[in-house]
Amino acid sequence: MRTLITNGTIVTAEGSQAADVLIDGETIVAIGAGLAGAGMTADESIDASGKYVIPGAIDVHTHMELPFGGTFAKDTFETGTRAAAFGGTTTVVDFAVQSRGASLREGLDAWHAKAEGNAVADYGFHMIMSDVNEGTLAEMDQLVAEGVPDFKLFTAYPGVFYSDDGAIFRAMQQTASNGGLIMMHAENGMAIDVVAEQTVAAGTTDPIGHGIARKAVFEGEATNRVIRLAEAAEVPVYIVHLSAREALEAVRDARDRGTAAFAETCPQYLFLSLDDMGNGFEGAKYVCSPPLRSKDHWDDLWKGLVKDDLQVVSTDHCPFDFEGQKEMGRGDFRKIPNGLPGVEDRVDLLHDGGVVGGRISRERWVEVISTAPAKLFGMYPRKGSVSVGADADLVIYDPDRKRTISATSHHMEVDYSCYEGRMVQGSSDVVLSRGSVIVRDGTFTGRKGHGQFVKRAPAEYARMA
Ligand code: URP
Ligand code: ZN
Ligand code: ZN
Asked: Counting atoms of ligand 1 from 1, which one is nearest the CA of 185?
């Protein structure tokens, strides 16, 4: 099957050009002006006049079916990757979980079983490490060899995912020798638990208490600490879901002194705020960790994206229904499952707020949603680029079309939207995954099981920066 995309503007992290794209099977085989006129034949032609042709977006932070607080995130690999595809995301990297006492292997096998035969678009895995011991350290080397080269550790969630500084440092030493990357959830969980208990004791049990207890300074402190540990271990480190200027300062300072520190933020920290959590129990819809911050953090985060102190925008997609799941925390915000839906909306929110809003160029938009994640997570140039030889994961993107975000029309398996009623400019028209059209004009045309596991290389880029 050969597909020719004509008359579009190819937008990549490096620049924009008017050119056609020829796909043969799953791969891009030619790029150039006037390919149709030059006699290139195809089985299908897609007219991209007035549209962008961008590399499929990559979301390197999702949680399909994550167990949390006695329940599970609702999207499966089928529903979650389908919703992602509607929003122009053609690859997700999800977090497999090592349960306390179990092996990394058991956790990874369980995640392979959830995804294989179900995902509609490509997927990879990072590994959440709950125990650091001789057994799991040895397993890390094996996972790197299997294309799962990143490990998430937590200074948050004592008693669940939390690791102490010694364990984190030991895991970092292991990645210094095996080429992997440590991803850190950096909040001071011990201090947060103290303030959370005091907040409840003082009578604040509503979701806003979650925001009060998880102070920005606790994120800043933990971010600085884990970066210092990485410096001591002489390895790169990647800070996930950075939400606060205090944490950004720690990353910026580290980068200024030459440390290979990298970080992502998420749309919720650029577009939502503590105010959203203040509306009684409705605020439970917005409970995630780190929490939403006051609006004055937004500008700092946008500047971080402009200056490349933040390299990636991912979603931390982790959807729980309001009814029946978020409601588990009525009367005690500590029992609200942490996480928000978002895998479907990231590309459009960033286009609308970033490109249309005049904060970042369209090339930088492509970089933070696709190219930088591909480079940092060992998928480039197969993913994250429009280049000959790359996977034909492409999005024909209409930069002018407006749509209103709503739970009544989204495809995520969750009963609310954090962005209900928000109008965004920019939308995916046609989405291709390895040469197959999986979404066309708002209709899913893909297939359950089309998605394949992406065996990723260790991040060369992380080591060189
Ligand atoms: O609230 C969040 N972020 N839930 C998902 C788990 C995590 O810490 O990423
Ligand atoms: Zn986290
Ligand atoms: Zn997460």
From this structure: 8
User: Torsion angle of alpha carbons 75, 129, 287, 285, nearest 10°?
Assistant: 10
Spatial distance between the Cα atoms of 191 and 241, rounded to a whole number of angstroms = 19
- Output the six-digit token pair for 454: 């992406």
Nearest to residue 308, comparing CAs of 366, 264, 250, 257? 264
Cβ(216) to ligand 1 under 6 A? no
Q: Whose CA is nearest to atom 2 of ligand 1?
A: 339
Give the model's confidence band at 465: pLDDT under 50 very low, under 70 low, under 90 confident, else very high. very low
Q: How far apart are CA 93 and CA 47, in angstroms?
A: 31
Fold of 55-381+455-464: TIM Barrel (3.20.20)
Q: Hey, what are 62's tokens?
A: 């999702």
Nearest-atom index, ligand 1, CA of 156: 8
Model pTM greater than 0.90? yes
In this structure, the number of other CB atoms found within 10 A of the CB of residue 138 comes to: 12
Q: Are 312 and 372 in contact (CB under 8 A)?
A: yes
Q: For 164-201, b where at least 16 C-beta lie within 10 A, e where not — what string?
A: eeebbbbbbbbbeebbbbbbbbbbbbebbbebbeebbe
| Backbone angles phi and psi of 197, in degrees to 5 | -65, -40
81 by Cβ neighbours in 10 Å (0-12 / 13-18 / 19+) ranks as buried
| Any atom of ligand 1 within 6 Å of the Cβ of 391 | no
Contact 13, 363 (CB under 8 A): yes
Report residue 320 as tokens: 């729980």
pLDDT one-digit tens code per residue, 15-41 = 999 999 999 999 999 999 999 888 888
> Phi then psi for 83, rounded to 5 degrees?
-60, -40
Angstrom distance (rounded) from CA 59 to CA 376 = 12
> According to the model, what pLDDT value does residue 310 have?
98
The model's pLDDT over 117-172, given as tens digits with 9 standing for 90+, comes to 999 999 999 999 999 999 999 999 999 999 999 999 999 999 999 999 999 999 99
